[in-house]
Amino acid sequence: MSESSRDDELAGTEQPFVEHLMELRDRLVKALIAVAVCAGALFFYPGPGPLYDLLAAPLVQHLPAGATLIATSVISPFMVPLKILFMAAFLMALPVVLYQVWAFVAPGLYSHEKKLVMPLVVSSTVLFFIGVAFCYFFVFGKVFAFIQSFAPKSITPAPDIEEYLSFVLTMFLAFGIAFEVPIAVVVLARLGIVSIEKLKAFRGYFIVGAFIIAAIVTPPDVVSQLSLAIPMCILYEVGIWAARIFIKHTKAPEDAAAPADSAS
């Protein structure tokens, strides 16, 4: 192959690659702008302080009278509310971020694959928010009440705000990911990695695994462990049911036509 023909061949492959990189850059910039806009809006209302107070409310209401959270680092009163601000901004901008991911991937998908991706993007976002909300409104209250019930009266609790933030982020992430079980089941079944029948047969192993995971990622109390394990088991069943629907409505045209051809 001559040098000129090799250059022509490379030129034909480099341009699409550069275009993909530029599009990826543009999508990332748009996602970052969405997060920055949400952060700016939250900074002015309600502000970093009220956001922190909102996040700390489930713990504060279970502390003894006169007990408060403390900051053991000089910059913690500034950094912790700021981290919470950006965490809240990212959650607010998550639909936009996922849309940018979808818009970048969509041109390379077949039409029947696009029918699968967009519902999964929307449902995964909704399920993650439901998991976080379930953790905040239900689990935190039960966990903190359980912990305080075991504290001796001679001990005055004064939790550190950085450790509390780390605990909250870990719990939010654990419950948010746990509520994505139906998405994982649907994807595995739709890609043909696991059949519906095998998913049903694996049900018992999943239940055991769910309780093991709950025991590892949650505090050592029965309430929080059951609060994570039971929804995971229920969502596993929801995933099996949803997988049947997705497989039926997202078949490739040739797959859908095959039964008709064989019948004729």
Describe it.
The chain contains 10 helices and no strands. The longest helix is centred in the N-terminal third of the chain and has 42 residues, at 3-44. The model is unreliable at 5-13 (pLDDT under 50). The relative contact order is 0.09. Helix 1 (3-44) crosses helix 3 and helix 8 crosses helix 9. The protein is 81% helix and 0% strand.
For the structure shown, list the relevant keywords.
0% strand, mainly alpha, 264 residues, 81% helix
Q: For the terminal residues, how far apart are their CA atoms?
A: 51 Å
Please, what is the oligomeric state?
Answer: single chain
Rg value: 24 Å
String of helices and strands: HHHHHHHHHH
Structural class: mainly alpha
Provide a count of the helices: 10
Largest sheet: none
- Average per-residue pLDDT, rounded, comes to 82
Report low-confidence residues grouped into runs of 5 or more. 5-13
Tertiary shape: flat
Helical fraction equals over 70%
Number of strands: 0
Which percent band covers the strand fraction? Answer: under 5%
Write the layout of secondary structure elements.
Blueprint: H1 3-44, H2 48-60, H3 76-105, H4 111-150, H5 161-178, H6 181-190, H7 196-201, H8 203-217, H9 222-249, H10 253-263
Helix pairs in contact: 1-3, 2-3, 3-4, 4-5, 4-9, 6-9, 8-9
Provide a brief overview of the structure:
By secondary structure, the protein is mostly helical. 81% of the residues lie in helices and 0% in strands.
